Amino acid sequence: MRILLAASLLFAELAIAQFVAEPTNFTTKTGHAGINVRYKEVPTGICEQNPNVKSYSGFADVSENEHIFFWFFEARNVDPTTAPLTIWINGGPGSSSMIGLFQELGPCGIDYDGAVYNNPYAWNNISNMIFIDQPTTTGLSYSIPVPGYTDANSGDLVSLPNATCPDYADPTTCGTYNVYNTTLTANSTTAAAPNFYLTLQAFTGAFPQYSSNGVYFTTESYGGHYAPVFSRYILEQNELNTTGTAPIDLRAVLIGNGWYDPILQYQAYYNYTSNYSTQVHQGGNDYGIHYNASIDSYVYNAIYGAHNCLDQLLDCNSYPYATNTSDGTGNQVCSAADNFCYNMVEYPYDIVFGRDEYDIRYLTPDPFPYTFYVDYLNNATVQAAIGAYTNFSESSSITSTAFGSTGDDAREIGVRAAVDHSPSHLSKYTDAHSIADYNCNGYGIEAFSETLSNIPGYTNGSAGFANISSSDGIVHGQVKSAGKFSFVRIYESGHEVPFYQPLVSLEMVNRTIHGMDIATGEVMVSDSYITEGPVISDFVNGNKTVTFDIIPLNATYNTTTNQPNPPYDAASTIPEDGGSDGKLMTRHERVMLDAEKAKKRSADVPWQFGKRITTKKGRAALFEDSMGARRKHRHGHAWSGEL
Asked: What biological process terms from GO does the record include (predicted)?
């Protein structure tokens, strides 16, 4: 879903103090649509460890001041000239796809000591992979690079005449950043589609050998907005067949924990956190972490009370998305609705429980997935190797502010129609969610899937949930499929599924590429294919992996036990809440606390808005936008101080 942003609006892009030299020694090619591509072959060991697997990074220069960064990896275990091309983008809006590369499904990760390690479950095992930072100013994509520092009092970016950090500046804030200009990035999902398309035109034209066997589009979080709209745009451009362009052979779309329809998904926060059945809702999550009666009532009213969240979202979505209104009223209404719904409906969970929105099993700060790659990408040697021209940060405040100005997050933007239309043009369309993810939780995603009207067999009760078989013999989730459309539930996973459940993630992608069913990988999918099982999933995860102490930043995650690996320093734990003797409990004692004890952790006191959440590097925080309202953004991860 969205990321929580913090600190300064005019300058929140910093990660590490360092001026970045203008990159040199690019190879330049002209791709389709006349777009220049500047790239480097990345040395083995920077990420990919196999010397026989080539990697390229660089920029598609889609306009004079818009340079879209990409990082490409050849397929490892199949001939890259006959392998398909799989695209990955993160969400946000404004979240870097380096999140996906280093934390989830790329060839490598970075450990606590800053060392590169191989990812045996990398998706380039089976496909060519391209990671794209979009729109402009996201990640390593840039508009106009400027040297600058952050003013200690205002938090604003102060430009410098050259790459010298003055004595009066905090040296940790000096660096090379994008000029703060929101007109140099997209301000909506629809506005971002053309440059994404041009980036694909550029890359496939410059490297035609890597996309000869189809293109697969994968994403997560705000990708629930991006992927349907971008895919529709690609299909429309294919039909136009403009001179100088080439058709993009888009075959399938996979979206993890997507943000599709705010009208449904803001309501789903109540479903996920409530343990009280109403005439409208059946509430609860698998981990027994629910509001008490008073807070439950408060949040319910914040959604359904007169002129509250739902009414404001309906008002917002009554304005035409494509045209808005000449005086900008639609944008103002939608931005205000999103701010209200976040503050009054979504954000209380953070305050009441102090848990990670992306994985409610963990208190904040949550060390998973690992964020050590942020420092790695701000290393001068690494930046030179990949051609970076700005400091790296996980998320862009420029982009998030631009999208916030149009209220894009609060708009449905034609996502449902795009998804309904796509299965007739694609070989597969897969929609997945993680049980431990509050941010884009399964109630909202499943509710969205049930509103689709062009998928015979899915919404009429014919399709049911079937277990997903994996090569390790463990059932990691369930799938409900009808024809080319699948809805997936993944067990014991936070927001970024490939980090928590790497094997089943890889196998789902592999099955999709080969046109096989998600459930078994043994049945060729046809329009008449339907999974058999209960129409409503009857699986309950249980709370055995819920933690009740802060997990240290150097902890590692075990994808077999679905828990942190032992041991870790007992001194880093905290006393159990409410303990009279202040006893330090071990992780193993805490994770086995029963559901009743977990439920008692619901707060009985009102929360206070306006308090910044204490966060670790790379996780959620808050910031004040130009209207003075908190804004949260959906991406697949959050930032630290760099945004």
From this structure: proteolysis
